[in-house]
Write the structure tokens for this entry.
Amino acid sequence: MKPELYCEFEKQLKGLGYYLIVDSSSYKRLHEFVNVYPIIRNDTAPIMKFHLHTRIDVEFIKSTFGRFMVKDYVKSVKGSDFPAYFDSTITQAEFDGWMEKFYQYRGDLLTGGICIKKYLDLKKYDGYTNEYRAFYYHNELMILMKSSNQSDVCCNPPFELIHKYKILDSPFFTLDFAQLEDDSWIIIESGDGQVSGITDSSQTETFYRMLKEKN
């Protein structure tokens, strides 16, 4: 759900005497990456944010980020011809055309605003990046999952980084971690725990068992 719809969902449930574990404020904070960014900025790629449907000066972006990717406040466009990233060769006219496509591709799912993120090279093992998703419940790590079919020889994110941001303002949320080519680690995404997918199917039963025990 978009945050506005989730807020209405919460109001209608309260009218029936039900209360959500994750209220609408917490949902919006973790669902939209730009809200978490000021807290985790030292451990994630730099970003810029813009209002929807405003023309973005690509020359300014290029002067700050050598390569960059485009997202709204929640997701990028995948599974299409939209570029994974742009570099210094992109012209203003070309970028304007791609932004028109971005709005078309995101359609009704378009959320919040536009997020321009510096593009970083992730380390790959046999063609797969080394990424993990951590689910946190009531400010404790609940489960850590592989998220990109990596082999067992890949290392886990550093313990210190996994636990550094476990106390965020939501009872149920996720952080996604990725290994860079220089072997350092960053946070690449945040999410509300209710709408973040289980990234390792082998842990599905464990996930729900742990969630039940936590409750």
Summary: The radius of gyration is 18 Å.
